[in-house]
Sequence to fold (790 residues):
Amino acid sequence: MNRMQKIVSRAKQELEVNEKSRSGEVRSREKLESNLTKYEYTKTRVIPITGDTLKRNRIISMDKTDLRAVRFQMLRSKVLQQMRKKEWNTLGITAPTSGAGKSLISVNLACSIAMEGNQSVLLVDMDLRKPSVNKYFELAPEYGMHDIIEGNASIAKTLINPGIDRLTILPGVKGVLNSSEQISTPFVKELITSLKERYSDRIVIFDLPPALAGDDVMVFIPYIDCSLLVIESGSNKRHEIEDSLNLLKEKPVLGTVLNRADTAKDTFY
Amino acid sequence: MYEEDEVEPLPSNLLPTLNRFKWYIVAATPLLLLCSLVVILILPSIYRAPARVMVETQQIPSDLVQSTVTAAASEQIDVMRQRVMTRDNLLAIMNKYDYFGLSSASPLEINLTLEEFRGQVALNIVSTIKGRTKVAIGFLISFGSKDPAIAQAITNDLVSLFLSENVKARTERASETTEFLVAEAGKIRAELDQIEATVAEFKRTNKDNLPEHLGLYVEMREDTRKRINENERMINGYQEQIRSLTTQLTLVKEQNGGFGTNQSELVELKKQLRLLQLKYQPNHPDVLNLRDKINLIAGGGNSAGDLNSSSAAEIDLENQIAGLKDTVTILEKETSNERSKLEDLEQRIIKIPQVERGFVSIKRDYEAKSQQYETIVSKTQSAEMAESLEQERKAERFILLEPPVLPTTASQPNKKKLLLLAFGFSLGLPIGVVGLMGLLDNSVRSRRAVELIVGENPLIEIPYIEVPEDIVRRKKYMLYSSAGALAFVLCLITIVQVFVMPLDTVMYKTIEKFGMQGYFR
Fold:
């Protein structure tokens, strides 16, 4: 009974949040009109990706037959619930160290959110040093995030739809060394703000670099609403997690994700 | 929310790690076991020919003759081990055999060989429980060598060294005991002599006052007293006699007209005469008679004949009196002698207690010493007896119960123990390594750990997302590693075949080494 009540109340909450976002939609539309003059907006390029490619690259959250997708659904629900409650729409995903699986979690979470049916998602690869989102979709994009920052390309040219409804990707192409300097330019701040406002009905997920690998995350954190910390089981130490949380605490941390957990094999079904 | 004030340790990763690597452990164990078996096989065989030596207890009851060697047999064996295993002894044995090649060895090599030799000597004490203590009843001694004949020969040498050393040590100890006791007895004898001399000297200086003479002195005193009394009595008697004789003499003198006595008679007669003259005429016969008589008396003494007869009696009496007086004088002299003697005796008797006190203390010393002397003499006697017990080899002794025989099977390596060890090692090493990994792994691995650090559970736990490619890769990995293991085993076999020994020999050796001959016949 209790559980049922919870589910019902949660559904109600979600309905409310959706209504709220829709009411804000009208406001943002107006802003969008004004932004259109600044950034030319054409229809997003669609590069369809086959299900096999996704599966091959461990993107399983869209596969309804895969039991593991349920975990991402759980994650999606928890994340969306909090974000909608507080009217946040930008989420940074990071991990203490590299290789923890933050990009994989980002991609899967983005896909899962897109699957929900009434929520559009923009996945931005903010890992300027080692962009990897493109690899998960096996994309070879012409322009990437750093092109936008350097002024070589417009946002519209860079955006890609991988053939999944309500999912847009802003990929990276190649790594740059001065990522921290690039991020700290006022332009990036402006860019993020505009992305946030332009796609205010969307959830923008930023795939961030490792929190402890440089100061990129520290610089970037003020631009976003909230963050998620991916912990790699068997690799991250206590102090790394504590340091990362300290770094992120400027903005709310939605929670943590324990990746590669060997204890979590059959907790669901 | 994310601050962690209390530092609670993270849950241990030991069990999860063991769980994760269990298949590695399962795979590594047989490989390690195989390696261990090869090592066991390559280990050289050591032969041992044990000699059994028994400790035989004293054959003569110990309440009759007490042995001087009182140390427990086990202690004796240990002591002997030290005495036997000296460098000189061992080098002497080693030099007997070319096997050790000492003649051409450098000093360093000699030392090394010696150490090795020492290490190969095994001495096991066989004991039994008697009451609450362990009593050694014998020991096993053996020498380990790759050559069975050498093992036997050297064990033989060691045993004879042990036995002779034992006899030597025991007799030595017994004769040492005797020597010690004899020397001790001599010392005490000298002291005793000194005390005896003191006693003699004391006796000499106090010879008149020796307490042992007290009785005699008292007796003598009584005798003397008696004698004095008697003398006094005699003197009195004699003096009485003298007095009577003197009276007699006076009478005799008077009768003979002697002055004194005759005069009174004369006076009496003259009185009578006067009376008569008054009555009678002067010519009256009575008057005349009386007058004649008076004349006779008055003039008789003057006549020569009369004078001679009266003197003889007087002289006789006088002589008698003089004789008696002499006797009295002698007796008196004697008495005074006796008195002085008595005084002397009494003086002596008074001094005796004083002397006695001094004498008692000297005597006490003397008695104590002489008792000590007697004890030590008796001890020396029993020590001498024990010495002859050892010399006759009737005391506790070591007898060779079982001489070393030429060994036919190797005693080392101890295959059962080694196999067990190899098994434990093969299983324990991987488990230990993985366990250590788990213990040293302080990374975050569980919900609980995340909760401890972050303060709340992770939103979600995601397992490793495995794709078909991973499965293919894993299969490949399995294939390669099994191939590697197989190649390793083959290499091992090849190495053994080429560098160590042919495989058929290996098989025979294995069968022999693990004592399985019985199963293959």
Notes: Residues 209-378 of chain B form one domain. The radius of gyration of chain B is 65 Å. The first strand of chain B starts at residue 47 and ends at 48. The interface with chain A takes residues 2, 4, 10, 13, 16, 20, 441-447, 449-450, 453-454, 456, 458-465, 467-469 of chain B (CB under 8 Å).
